Amino acid sequence: MKKNPPRYLHLAPEAELPVLDALENFKAVLVVDVDVLETVRWDISRWLVESGSKYVMVWGKDAEQWHESIDDAHLEATNYEDLDDADVLITTSHEDDDLSEAFWFAQHRASHPAHELHDTLIVHIAEAPRREEIEDEFHDA
């Protein structure tokens, strides 16, 4: 399976959410370095679902709350229907892991029952970007 290099996206809290063109059936690693308002967390959760993410791994502040809001956003988007494998969104919380462990999991264990996930999007929610540092840690994991 050919894996593309990860894409890094920095989001400042309450920043406008970009359109994610050229990504489809992708996995996302949400790296949360700052406290985020609940309404913003919901907006980002819905955005990840609407953008086509099929697997979301959450690491950082309030990881379990993020995990739950992404699951709930997916249920909301699918009208709480039973889904076949192709429509499932998998979420995991890595609150007790080091970031390198979450990145290792993203590279070696995160898979979907119905889709090849060639693309990984690292969504870094922080006041300031740390692209090089985070990309290096991802590659070293």
UniProtKB/TrEMBL annotation:
<protein>
    <recommendedName>
        <fullName>DUF7684 domain-containing protein</fullName>
    </recommendedName>
</protein>
<dbReference type="InterPro" id="IPR056101">
    <property type="entry name" value="DUF7684"/>
</dbReference>
<dbReference type="Pfam" id="PF24733">
    <property type="entry name" value="DUF7684"/>
</dbReference>
<feature type="domain" description="DUF7684">
    <location>
        <begin position="7"/>
        <end position="140"/>
    </location>
</feature>
